[in-house]
Amino acid sequence: MSEEQQFENEKEMNLVGHLSELRNRLIVTAVVFITLFVIGFIYVESIYYFFTKDLDFTLKITGLTDTVSVYITLAGLVAIIGTLPLLCLQIWLFIRPGLTKTEQRASLLYIPAIFLLFIGGLVFGYIIFVNLIIPFLLSLNTGMFDEIFTYDRYFKLLFRITIPFALLFEIPILSMFLTSLGILTPEFMRKTRKYAYLILVIVGAIITPPDFVLQIVVAIPLIVLYEISIYLSGIVYRKKIKKHQEFMENNEV
Q1: What's the CA angle centered on 70, arms 43 and 153, to 5 degrees?
Q2: Which GO terms of the cellular component aspect does the record hold (predicted)?
Q3: Are 212 and 231 in contact (CB under 8 A)?
Q4: What is the pTM of this model?
Q5: How does residue 4 score in pLDDT terms, banded at 50, 70 and 90?
Q6: Which distant-in-sequence residues (6+ apart) come within 8 Å of 206 by Cβ?
Q7: How far is 24 from 189, CA to CA, in rounded Å?
Q8: Predicted confidence (pLDDT) per residue in 165-201, tens digit
Q9: Second label for 157, Cα 20 to 30 Å away, from 14, 88, 150, 182?
């Protein structure tokens, strides 16, 4: 067997090994997801009460299968939130062999940060939804209509508001990660600040009702998040430059 064939065989074996490891990690994540889904299914009444205890109206269902939809939706939400840190950990364990010791320690800190920011976004979106959006929508009806609040429409609107916030709250982590890869720089983020602000205002307008004050209230925290992202990107960038300079100095010696 030639050296080239041997190299190709080793390369193929490594690929198969990586795919097998990835499959095993996905299986572990799927098992945890299913377990949490079952737990959420069992305690769905308590979860439902948590989301509806502050409402001044009663949610109704319009079909026999709506009850099943309630169970699946709420149990799925619990499973997704609970599985997120494990999924991040499994991804980190998969890519860890290709990282240096310093990169391993730094990237490991991303896992709790991703989870906490995701939860923070959900909580912020829920507060906005309950305290600002619902009162605004209810105020539009001045007695012209009889209101029927269904579970389906309520939770669709709730998730339409909260999920985008949960994703947008990941901007600081995303900016740090892209900076560490050399794809993004704090200087670029500063130069494009006005465009980023415009995009965030548009996003705030899309996920909230057409009320100018409400849209501004939503956009301000997103803009603050962007500024925090610039600051964190600057920290990562300075460390990256410092390491590069130390590496060059050591090589010169």
Answers
A1: 140
A2: TAT protein transport complex
A3: no
A4: 0.76
A5: low
A6: none
A7: 38
A8: 888 888 888 888 888 777 888 888 888 888 888 888 8
A9: 88
